[in-house]
Amino acid sequence: MNIIVCIKEIPDPEATIDSYRLDAANKVLVSSSKVLRVVNPFDEQAVEAALRIKDKMGAKVTILSLGNNLDRVVVKKPLHMGADELILLEDEAYVGGDSWSTAQALSAAIRKIGGYGLILCGRQAADSNAGQTGLGIAEFLGLPCVTMARKIDVADDRASVERVIANGYETVEVTLPAVITVSNELGQARYPSIKNIAKSNAIKPVIWKPADVGLEPEACGKRARELRAVSVFLPVFEATCEIVGGDTVQEAAQNLAVRLREERIL
Amino acid sequence: MTDYKHVMICGELTDDGLASITRELLNGGRKLADNLGEEFHALFLGNGVTERAREALAFGADNVYVVDNPCLDRYEGDSYAAVLAQTVERLRPRILILETRKSVPTWDLASRSSSEGLS
Hints:
The structure holds 2 protein chains of 2 kinds.
Chain A: E1 2-7, E2 9-11, E3 20-23, E4 28-31, E5 37-39, H1 41-57, E6 60-67, H2 72-75, H3 77-81, E7 85-90, H4 99-113, E8 118-122, H5 133-141, E9 145-155, E10 158-165, E11 168-175, E12 178-182, H6 194-200, E13 206-208, H7 249-262
Parallel strand pairs in A: 1-6, 1-8, 6-7, 7-13, 8-12, 9-12
Antiparallel strand pairs in A: 2-5, 3-4, 9-10, 10-11
Helix pairs in contact in A: 4-5
Chain B: E1 7-11, E2 13-14, E3 17-18, H1 20-36, E4 40-46, H2 50-53, H3 55-58, E5 63-68, H4 77-91, E6 95-98, H5 108-118
Parallel strand pairs in B: 1-4, 1-6, 4-5
Antiparallel strand pairs in B: 2-3
């Protein structure tokens, strides 16, 4: 079976807040150059899910990512973990998109790859936290989608998926091909192995420009956004303290009740 | 998009009536509609929800719509998204607000139905 895993390169989610700068003019948060780039942790778990299927029944695992000037150390990590192939949608035109334009470009690439049984994504990206790209891909490709997987078992043309819900999990079955988004409950993603690093060093990423997947540059990235940021700001926390007094304790309590009532808290 | 008007929420009903998040949405949606000078509607999908959905009127909705069908008994993303997209197509709200339910993970409903409606 051919499995495609979509991964996103993001700034290290462990980075502290002071390593970010607010670019108010462009309405974005900019991470300083000191912040490491990493594979979105949820996507790493999607890679892990694919590799577990590969271990069990054999599969070809293709990694797909989108961006510009992608850090090769980052995007090659899934290969070092045991994936077989890396395709990068890499071009200036892909930059600055939203879930919508990203899902469109990725689904165009997945159509071009073809012959897939399973498409895996992380449940959300740890930088934007929208959790929409996987679902968008499924809708654009007309495939069923199961979100929040913690375990995936593939048999014939079906997958049985344990899906995380509020108080436990539910098991659902889905026909393949399907899109499945993977949650952190799947468990720790494996470390790259020396063997796989040595083996995958020779693998050259395949680069696809918008034209290669049949898209106009205008239909990608920033220019294809459906969502526009109106403002981006750091919240300001302010606390004011007011002492409510009275001649007696009872009177103070009464005054407090009146004040709370005025503020519509009571 | 000019014939799309009004604010709509898609809410959740529990056995005890409106879910607490839905009451919050009704409150927020009403304010938003008032600020925009538009009507405010509530939509409920499910099985046997018609009677319980009336409560939304008391929480400020001008109209309550229900899609009441045994097929919608249990939340299932594909069918709910298809039904929601069709309902939006018919009722044409300008703004639709969805919630992330606590009981079942419906956070996929917004992205599914928006891609469905626009693709």
